[in-house]
Amino acid sequence: MRTEPSTSSPILTTIPKGSQVVAVGSRGAWRSVQYRGRAGWVSSRYVSRERPVLTSAPRPPALVTQRRAVRAIPENSRQGQPVRKGTYGQGCDCPYDRMRNGRRCGGNSAWSRPGGRSPKCYW
Q1: Hey, is 33 helix, strand or coil?
Q2: How does pLDDT run across 101-120, given as a tens digit for each residue?
Q3: What are the backbone dihedrals phi and psi of residue 108, each rounded to the nearest 5 degrees, phi first?
Q4: Residue 13: predicted pLDDT
Q5: Fewest C-beta in 10 Å: which of 53, 78, 100, 118?
Q6: From the CB of residue 43, how many other CB atoms can be counted at a distance below 10 Å?
Q7: Mean pLDDT over residues 64-93, rounded?
Q8: How many CB atoms lie within 10 A of CB 61?
């Protein structure tokens, strides 16, 4: 709502959509209205005889995530413990095995590489 029927005049207040106003007069494309005891001017684009249908804001699309099957682990299991002792210089099946130079196989092991063999290394 503005003080004069012009977009360059100061704004008195903002009237929420769907609020009821009393139309007093008009001048061109502007309507003189009263709202909560204050008089001012509103563009006729924002005034109608019928109460507008208020709709809620559109909801963002739901986030789709992949579901994975989760297996229950018994409380007395040794989850994360090696199945066997590491080998030394006999290949790199598991990350805790040792290479011929004495270092751990780690990411070079068959267990760590996707798409290859899948030896059982941990409980």
Answers
A1: strand
A2: 888 888 888 777 777 677 77
A3: -85, -5
A4: 92
A5: 53
A6: 15
A7: 63
A8: 6
Reading the block at residue 88, the tokens are 């030394």
For residue 87, pLDDT beyond 80? no
Contacts of 22 (CB under 8 A, 6+ apart): 33, 34, 35
Q: Tell me the two tokens of residue 26.
A: 């008009």
pTM flag (> 0.90) = no
Confidence of residue 68 (pLDDT cuts 50, 70, 90): low
6 to each of 22, 24, 47, 88, how far by Cα in Å? 19, 17, 16, 88
- Taking CA atoms, 2 is separated from 13, 23, 26, 83, 123, in Å, by 7, 14, 13, 79, 74
């249908």: which residue's tokens?
53
3-state secondary structure of 31: strand
pLDDT for 116: 66
Where do we find the tokens 């290479």? 99
Structure letter (DSSP) for residue 46 = G
23: tokens are: 């139309």
pLDDT at 30 over 90: yes
Q: How far is CA 98 from CA 14, 102, 105, in A?
A: 74, 6, 6
